[in-house]
Input
Amino acid sequence: MAELQNTKVQHLIREGSDHAPLHVTCSTGQEQIYKLFRFLNFLTKHHSFQKIVEDVWKMEATGSPLTVVQTKMKRVKLALVQWSRTTFGNIFQQVATLEDLIRAKKVQLEINASEENRTTLKKSEADLKKYLHIEEEYWKQKAGMRWFKDGDRNTKFFHAFVNGRRRKMHIFVIKTRQRYTITTTQNIGKKAVNVFKEQFKETYVPTDFSMLEHIPKIISEEQNEEMGRLPAEKEIKEVVFALNGDSASGPDGFSGQFFQSCWDTVKWDIVNMVRAFFCGQELPRFITHTNLVFIPKKEVVDSFGDLRPISLRQSYSIKKMMKVLREYEQVSGQMINLDKSFVYLHENVPLGVCRKIKRITACVITDLHRIFVKFFWANTTGAKNKHWVSWDRMCYPRGEGGLGWRSLHDVSKALFAKLWWNFRTSTNTLWAFFMRNKYCKKHHPIIAQGYGTSHVWRRMTSIREEVEHEIWWQNKAGNSSFWFDNWTKQGALYHIEDTAKEEEVEVKEFEGWDMEKLLQNLSLEMTDHIMENISPPNILFGNDVAWWMANAQGRFTVKSAWQIMRNKHENRRDYELIWNKRLPFKINFFLWRVWKRRIATDDNLKKMRINSV
Output
């Protein structure tokens, strides 16, 4: 198999046996691979790294500031490659050699437990630990997984992830527009160059610039001068250190970590290069050249057309817009990339079109859930897998049979509940003032209409009943609404009293609890509740205060609102016993799947009509 490195193995469906046949495709052809320079961040942790870069960077270079930086970076690349080979060597070979050496040293120590053998073994184990850490850092950077936190060694996981992504992103076969099949990497690369060269080729030289006269001058001379001002060294440093050091390298192969760790050495050349750009110096080819990166838009890439988005919508208004864009292309000499263009609709667009757009946006959370569950059930290489439990069933607390995650639908409701709380309790914010004047001029907020209004107001009114039931207005000066505010802890009187009136009356108008007046407006039971449990309003106590009854502190939190809004299941003791904090998640998760009978047993596969392999 070492001589057939391009071998591919595929499991076929088993029939009539518990053994699955394998389809093996062998190839002895070895294509030449051109490896580009990629800076490895673990190099910066070596004690001699800074000196290597400093010695090479100080060497004289001639030309413009842009050319100087290019020349010095080329020298640093060569120096780092040679230094890395001498200092670290092949880290994977070093790990394998040290593992064999440690096994031999352990045998020697068992035979002769001398202090010299023990010291030699400890030294080899320390070297192995160092190289294992370097190996993990290498694969972690290759994987580019920013969400992964430090912890136990995850080299195997990173390695599997990188290899799976490479297999997924590698193009083995592709078809041309004439449906000819291209196989080798070299031929695919040549064809890709021809396809995109034809697409981006300039076919027209502009001569008519009259359209530019219609472009209004919005930016003032002062603003233009400020934007063209030479940046200070401090500003450039802030931009460099704002880079994510763990992000992918640029076209030159260097990551942000290199410039941040070597800033004292390279800063003045970088500053001069940036200032030369602002001064209008001619940009050399190494800066203006472009790397084309193919982003697949389908699971299986069949042609170059599958590597970019496609717009299918056509209408009369878009045709007129396309005419304007073509005129712009003729004047500016630039070409609009239609594959990356998007259409935004004005509020005066016909209702039928808006409804279609709303149906699309309403599916955003559902699409996100679909992405989450697809990622969760995928294996380490990102391949598609069976979804044994739906996302909705997993979005429950663990005691209720879920995994403790939150549905974005429930989170969205909780966030709109926060908006409603801020709207009802804030008296001095510009946003609350605007919303009251726009939607609540004629009616109290709890009965204001929600249809035919903005999306935000509709969503706020859709959850207001549940939120209002949890807002208790502490009776102090009595300036709460008698009918519409929940000042009795029983809910708004407008909703629970048959004799409720749609009028604005404050609680303080019933000062001293005029029992006769209360009985004229309320039932006997509610009147008794007010007389026995609620103190009469007193202007000396200050304004009434809103209290959030969903927690003991009386302060609104999104978490407490989520608890109110979410769907609930019965809390069961057996589910709570499954989860043990001292066990890894994968063990607890496996027990959870067993208890729910969601594992790949033959009877479950048969019920789901899945062919066993």
Observations:
- Strands lie at 8-11, 22-25, 174-175, 181-182, 471-474, 545-548.
- The longest helix spans residues 115-143.
